[in-house]
Amino acid sequence: MSMPAPLELEMDLEVFQGPFDLLLTLVLREEVDLLEVQLADVVLAYIDHLERAGELDLEAATEFLVLIAALLELKSRLMLPGEQGEREGPEPGEAADELLARMLEYSRYKSAAAYLRSRLEQEGGFRYRAAPLPPPLRRVSVDLAEPVYDPALLGEAIGSLLRTPPRLELEHIARPQVSIEQRLSHLRSLLGRRSSFVFDEAVKGADRLTEAVTLFALLELYKAGEAEWEQPEAFGKITVRACGPSARAVEG
Amino acid sequence: MNELARVVEALLFLSAEPVSLDRLADACESSEAEVIESLARLREHYAEGYRGVVLREVAGGFTLATDPVAEKAARRLLSRPRTPPLTPAQAECLAIVAYLQPVSRPEVARVRGVSSESAVGTLLERGLIEESGRSRFGAVLYRTTELFQKLFGLEALDALPDVSGFDPSPDEESRLRERLLKAGEARAQV
Amino acid sequence: MNELARVVEALLFLSAEPVSLDRLADACESSEAEVIESLARLREHYAEGYRGVVLREVAGGFTLATDPVAEKAARRLLSRPRTPPLTPAQAECLAIVAYLQPVSRPEVARVRGVSSESAVGTLLERGLIEESGRSRFGAVLYRTTELFQKLFGLEALDALPDVSGFDPSPDEESRLRERLLKAGEARAQV
Fold first, then answer.
1. Residue B102 preceded by cis peptide, ω within 30
2. Could you report the per-residue pLDDT of A105-151, keeping only the tens digit for each?
3. DSSP annotation string for A97-135
4. Is A139 helix (H, G, I), strand (E, B) or coil?
5. Cβ pair B64:A119 closer than 8 A
6. Does residue A97 come out as left (phi exceeding 0), alpha (psi in the -120 to 50 range) or beta?
7. Which of A73, A220, B128, C180 is an S-S bond match for C111, by CB 3.0 to 4.6 Å?
8. d(CA C12, CA A20)
9. What is the Cα–Cα distance from B75 to C85, expressed in whole angstroms?
10. How far is residue A86's CA from residue A73's CA, in Å, rounded to a whole number?
């Protein structure tokens, strides 16, 4: 089986109105075999394009990734050998349906947009008059004013403006307060007391970030010649030993 | 032209906005039936193709506008185009707001698959859309304005064509679906 | 009416100011003699006493103006305060001005958590709010008008409804202004 020639992505991203536009074009291009499209290239090119356009915000990028993920999933399912009954999750048909539904929704408004543009152009010849009123008609007469608005409207508006929106749940991404310095002094104090310890003890009960920072602190100690370690097998225990002047002091 | 028709003509000439039938009747202290008759007379006077000014029914009311025959000269005299055209992005946002209103900016972005902040901002600035309250999450909702109806020559919002008319035909839809699945079928035959 | 007369009619209709003969001729790319002939035809159409709009020759050129026959109706239509229902954005802006006055536009936007140019503009245009000096940072300040009080049936400003009846947390002690600004900042982040 010969390798398909790598597909040249000759697309001017500037002309696309968004990822759906891009995908629609991609999928409908007769000469493009979906299997051959390097989606990673599309992703990178598109994100690049957004960034250059100064439009890269989290919302846009996330939306695009969700979309590409759907296409990737579809593509990966298409690439799986055609075994029956062993797949989990949606069938390729379903994955395609999901993506198709969103592309169709987009395509509806893309056509509606084209209609609006042409309608505006057709209407272009009708101009409306925008002249100020003759002076005698300009002043609104306060005497003619009658109560038509309910003052409660104002109270309600203020009441709703006083309501604080529900707080976003940020706890799960709240950053635990942990610094390299803290973990360095933690490791040094362990070494000072015992001259060697198992790494797991140093991070007992700690969260993953603390674990990572502690490991980083350990690398710092190694670099400074204060400690070395040993791990006899992959995923085995890591034993940390003091070395350098402080170690000798303890041994002596 | 009788006096009522003359008055209605003058009111339409003065008012910057389209005037609804009931407001015309109130101002003229006449019945709506009488105003309708006057409007019919005016329409004869302003029959399209005969005058420089035409009588139009837009945005829920009546208004006078120039005939397109004068557009070039008007551009020379006033040295500005009537309405700058919409960019494709602005048109997409406008179409989504027009058909789904009231709709929030995140929803517009969801349909387009891309952040739509600047396009929505421009539509707001140009007065084609406006705020219409908030969603229950506090996001601002948008709807189209009377100016939108006026500039697009719509009698009312429901004069927009049915949105399903913009859906791809069943043929196009199945072609899209086929293309999506084609690679998989090719693979299965190997 | 020939095409030139139609175009001249449209130009006079659009222009707020009288248009001179040479500007008309320039815009129509015609000779002044041709424009004079068109104006004569138009004058027949717009003969005084027959139409709601008349053609006048004034200092500086030609202009269309309404016939005095429509004056009373025009006053009824246009001098009466316009009171369409307030949009939610307008109601919010108006409430902020009413309760916090004098208040600047940036403050209104901060409380709402969203730019409020067009709503504030509409309130100004309808005469519900007006300028009231400048803040020490130079921003224009707004307050409500007498018309506002009349349209809301308020005898005085202190007759505004008591906020505590609408307050989601009436026990909060700090001042209304600070609380509104705080809530607005939180909203802007949603």
1. yes
2. 888 999 999 999 999 998 888 888 887 777 777 766 777 778 899 99
3. HHHHHHHHHHHHHHHHHHHHHHHHHHGGG--B--PPPPH
4. coil
5. no
6. alpha
7. C180
8. 48
9. 36
10. 16
- Out of C6, C76, C113, name the one closest to residue B70 (CB): C6
Question: Which tokens sit at A1?
Answer: 């089986």
Bridge partners of residue A198, in order along the sequence: A239
Q: Residues B136, B138, B139, B145: what is their CA dihedral angle, to the nearest 10 degrees?
A: 80
**What is the distance between the terminal CA atoms of chain A, rounded to a whole angstrom?**
70
Burial readout A130-146 (b: 16 or more C-beta within 10 A, e: otherwise): eeeeeeebeebeeeebe
Which of B12, B14, B23, B54 is the best residue to mutate to test the C interface, defined by the most C CB atoms within 10 Å of its own CB? B14
Q: Give alpha helix (H) positions in A123-179.
A: 135-138, 152-162
More confident residue, A234 or A228: A228
Amino acid at C48: E
Query: Which of B79, B131, B179, B185 is most worth mutating to test chain A (most A CB atoms within 10 A of its CB)?
Result: B179
DSSP state of C168: S
DSSP state of C146: H
- Span B129-147, pLDDT tens digits: 998 888 877 778 999 999 9
Q: Is the pLDDT of residue B29 over 90?
A: yes
Q: How far is Cα B10 from Cα A112, in angstroms, rounded to an integer?
A: 37
Q: DSSP letter for C153, please.
A: T
Parallel/antiparallel/unpaired status of strands C103-104 and C53-58? unpaired
- Which one-letter amino acid corresponds to residue A248? R
Structure-block tokens of residue A73: 């999933």
For A35, other C-beta atoms within 10 Å of its C-beta total: 15
Sequence length of chain A is 252
Structure tokens that stand for B127 in this block: 């007065």
CA distance B107 to A205: 43
